[in-house]
Amino acid sequence: QFQSGQNTLTPTVNAPGTYLLTITNTASNCTTISSVTVAQDIQAPSADAGPDGLLTCNVTQLNLDGNDSSIGPDFSYLWTTTNGTISSGATTLTPTITEPGVYILEITNTVNGCETTNSVTINENTTPPNAAAATPGELTCTVQSLNLSGAGSSTGAGFGYAWTTSDGNILSGANTISPSVNEPGTYQLTVTNSATGCTNTAQVLLGQTVDLPDADAGPSTTLTCASPSLSLSGSASQGPDFGYAWTTTNGSIVNGASSLTPTVNAGGTYVLTVTNSANGCTSTSQVNVQVNQTEPTVSILPPATLTCLEQTAELNGSGSSTGSQFEYAWTTVDGNFAGPADALQTTIDQPGTYVLTIVNTVNGCENSDEVTVDLDGELPLVEAGPSIELNCSETVGSLTGSTDLPTGAWTASWTTTDGSMVAGANGLTPTVGAPGTYLLTVTNNSTGCSDTDVVTVTEVVFENFEVETLAPSCLNQTGSIEFMDFFGGTPPYQFSVDGGSSFGNLAVVTGLSPGTFNLVVQDANGCELTDVAYLPEPPVVEVELDADVLLNLGDSYQLNAQVNLPEEEIGLVEWSPAATLSCADCLTPLASPIQQTSYLVKVTSKEGCTASDVITIFVKKEAPIYVPNAFSPNGDGTNDVFMIYAGGNALEKIRSFLVFDRWGESVFEYYDFQPNNPAFGWNGEHLGETMNPAVFVWYAEIELIDGSTRLMQGDVTLVR
């Protein structure tokens, strides 16, 4: 490609290729052609400024690396920057730089003049890490070491920690974020970024509080039997943030071990530990508790033995503690005192166990001992024997008492308050003649001891029986007698209805005709009771009604069937016809006929006997109706309305009520209403106007309760 001078002998070209030169003889127009080839060398050098780099607190300068670029004598090198600093070697492949920035490497081929550039970026990281130091509290008597805290400092694998102090003490973890320390002082934390070498520091002041609280366990005291427990007093040790703990190795704390006044119930040394909860510091104090719980001495001499003859004995406690501070009390649950119970010596009159209790009123201590008083006197065995039974044939009997004492060694005595001794009252087998309770007393002649036993003698008395009779009836002409409810006697029983001439074993005797019967009941012992029974003639049922009666239509009549039977013997009452009766199965129905009716009543007894009677009720079909012949509708409240009046119960309703003037014109009409009601009467007006005084004609159709009707008419005078 020609750049210029194409028509000259020395043209300028700017592209490789074959160029033709044509020369023309302008005179002859002949031409000659020649060619020339132009080659091209534009190979650019290779430029590589190397990898990006980083300046840090540890790395303050770097050597750039262009060694991966074209190298040789035909190349020249030049490093330039607009925002960095090249301290040396700007025309070498490895210059030294000291500032971050963009560095450009330019390489020139000195043979063909071609050049190439490449750049590298150098960054800088000199930011110090975060450093923070804190303490969770202060050292106290309970907190004697703690861990400082570097929370808030930079963390991660690339950071290192170093704690130092000039006036404290680091126990462990000086190169951790949370070291353990045990002395107050100032502690400094240095945090290092191992990647950049940059560091930062922080410090914290650790304080200490170790003030001791006051402790005072109070004065010594003494336990007694009256005061087996007491409260200690550490009240002089109190403070707003104090805690309390009582301990003992040889005493006993009942409760309140964490209070100022615990309760204790044993002698010993008690230690009060007072803790200041604000710093955990403690102080101690102790108090001694003495014991005065010596029990009094109780000593009782052996007592004498009671016998049936010697019935008292002395109890003697004179060997016990004595003095004004001692009180004495004898007690027993199975014996009995015949002397004082509050002295060392007393008298008793019953065997048993006796306890002497002595109380020391100074220390409240008490002690007791017991002694048993025996009874030497075995009671004889006494048996009054089995009960016996008297009856009407055996009026006396023998009792059979016994004892374990040999003959001649005892004395016997029988007594009774409700029986009768016949003979042998001082022997074991007396004869008695009445029922009752008999007491046998046997006494040991050598010891005087005695015992008793009782036996009951009963008497079988045939006292009473009941009889139930079934009288002959109108259907069954014979009756029966039943014996029942036997009181006393001995079964089986025999029965007689002929005064004892003959007996049978059936309690019900049937087929008996009316009459009087002499009854006898005999028990197994031959004892007899008598009675009399009567079987009446069969009853005849009778019923009677009133005479026939006359009623006004609408009235009622109380029927009354009079029967000769008590109500409980009536089985059935039947009335007919029943339509107009208040009840058809009672004795006194209410009859309300509307026409002549004959009522038949039939009464049937529970035995099936019947009787009947008839009553006829005649009905007078008239209704007492009154219609005035004058009225004065002047508003004075008297006779102001012309209306129909009726009495009794015969009238069902007024079908129509018509009033006409003298010319035959209707001035008032009303239909289907009840009498005696001013609302259904004429007030002397027609079509809203007041009528003049005159005579008017009226007509009325009356319906009775039996459905029949009556026509009535008349005249009425209107008066003003």
Describe the fold and architecture.
By secondary structure, the protein is mainly beta. The chain is 0% helix and 46% strand. β21 and β22 (263-264) form a beta hairpin. The termini are far apart.
Largest sheet: 5 strands, mixed
Shape: flat
What share of residues are in beta strands?
over 45%
Strand numbers in spatial order across the main sheet: 54-61-60-56-57
Nearest-integer average pLDDT? 92
Strand pairing plus helix content: what structural class? mainly beta
Question: What keyword list fits this structure?
Answer:
flat; single chain; 720 residues; four-stranded mixed β-sheet; mainly beta; 0% helix; five-stranded mixed β-sheet
Quick overview:
It contains no helices and 61 strands.
Topology:
Elements: E1 2-4, E2 12-13, E3 17-24, E4 31-38, E5 53-56, E6 62-63, E7 75-81, E8 86-88, E9 96-97, E10 101-109, E11 115-125, E12 146-147, E13 159-165, E14 170-172, E15 180-181, E16 185-193, E17 199-206, E18 221-224, E19 230-231, E20 242-248, E21 253-255, E22 263-264, E23 268-276, E24 281-292, E25 313-316, E26 326-332, E27 345-348, E28 352-360, E29 366-373, E30 382-383, E31 388-390, E32 397-398, E33 402-403, E34 410-416, E35 421-423, E36 431-432, E37 436-444, E38 450-459, E39 464-470, E40 479-487, E41 494-496, E42 508-512, E43 515-522, E44 528-535, E45 543-544, E46 549-552, E47 557-558, E48 562-563, E49 570-576, E50 590-591, E51 597-605, E52 610-620, E53 625-626, E54 630-631, E55 645-646, E56 651-660, E57 666-673, E58 685-686, E59 689-690, E60 694-704, E61 709-718
